[in-house]
Specification:
With about 300 residues, the protein is mostly helical. Among the domains are: about 90 residues, no CATH class; about 120 residues, Arc Repressor Mutant, subunit A, CATH 1.10.10. β1 and β2 form a beta hairpin.
């Protein structure tokens, strides 16, 4: 084999990887996993939690583990160490500082408007998805969509304490008030002539197939609630089904369209503003085997 052909084969087999960009994430913990644990957080060979902790200057991985599990917030010093270790740009580091600021304000129930505007300056690429950053960030919390549907019900009471008591997840009244104020600012909600809350222009729809941690966070929260309902909700009040099947990946777009049409039909048939509760329908369609199974 001549040298030129050998070179071509090497180029063909070369796997080019690109470092994840901080701007593609709205969660610090997810960015840490993506950039520092590319083989997964439970990998025991290389790029594991212990090695990452040492790279960041920590003797034990316990602090790192708590940050990744979102059991504690990272410090500014941690973010600086992360930026130095992975050679993040100054803009990426400042973006992570703003994400940290956003998390702290969410915990305290403080206004996020200025922080979200700051994040928007770094996330110009979000405009490519046809969605303003503020709306993009807002949908990452599952209870935003729950609130919009509660508002449409005839028995809705605009009281944060009341709304908090109705939700199955642990959502503070301060978070409810902040969510309503934020959705009013974003034009998702409006007030009618009697000053009652209403959905503006039919509400909003979650855009699909966006490579975003905000979207992943939205679905993860609802999937987690679905898992909890297996233990906390009587079988008579819930319905769980699953289907495992062989599948041709060339039909993926057709399958997505079929599922989307089903959801729309389900909504048209069963959505009822005179109902007595809010229900959630989750549909997940994902692979159980790797791409290109061995033959």
């Amino acid at each position: 084999m001549d040298k030129q052909n050998n070179t071509n084969i090497k180029k063909k087999n070369l796997k080019i990887t690109h470092r994840p960009s901080a701007f593609d994430f709205s969660s610090i913990s997810e960015f840490i996993v993506a950039i520092g644990l590319p083989n997964g957080r439970y990998n025991h060979k290389s790029d594991n939690l212990k090695e990452l902790a040492l790279k960041l200057g920590y003797r034990s991985p316990s602090t790192l583990t708590m940050i990744i599990k979102e059991q504690r917030l990272p410090s500014k010093g941690f973010i600086k160490s992360l930026a130095d270790t992975f050679k993040l740009s100054a803009k990426e580091k400042n973006y992570l500082f703003l994400l940290l600021e956003k998390s702290k304000k969410e915990m305290k129930g403080e206004d996020l408007k200025e922080t979200l505007l700051g994040l928007k300056k770094y996330r110009n690429n979000v405009q490519d998805y046809g969605m303003d950053l503020n709306k993009f960030e807002a949908i990452s919390n599952w209870y935003y969509s729950a609130i919009t549907q509660m508002i449409e019900m005839d028995n809705f009471i605009e009281d944060a304490e009341w709304v908090s008591r109705q939700l199955v997840g642990k959502v503070k009244p301060s978070q409810i008030r902040l969510a309503i104020d934020q959705m009013l600012d974003l034009g998702i909600l409006k007030r009618d002539k009697k000053n009652k809350l209403k959905l503006a222009s039919g509400g909003w729809r979650l855009v699909q197939d966006i490579p975003s941690s905000a979207i992943r966070n939205y679905h993860s929260g609802l999937i987690e609630l679905a898992g909890e309902s297996l233990h906390s909700v009587d079988p008579e009040s819930r319905h769980m089904m699953g289907l495992t099947l062989p599948f041709d990946s060339d039909q993926m777009e057709e399958a997505k369209d079929f599922i989307q049409n089903f959801i729309m039909k389900f909504n048209r048939k069963f959505a009822n503003n005179k109902g007595d509760k809010i229900e959630q329908l989750n549909i997940q369609f994902f692979p159980l085997t790797k791409d290109d199974m061995e033959h």
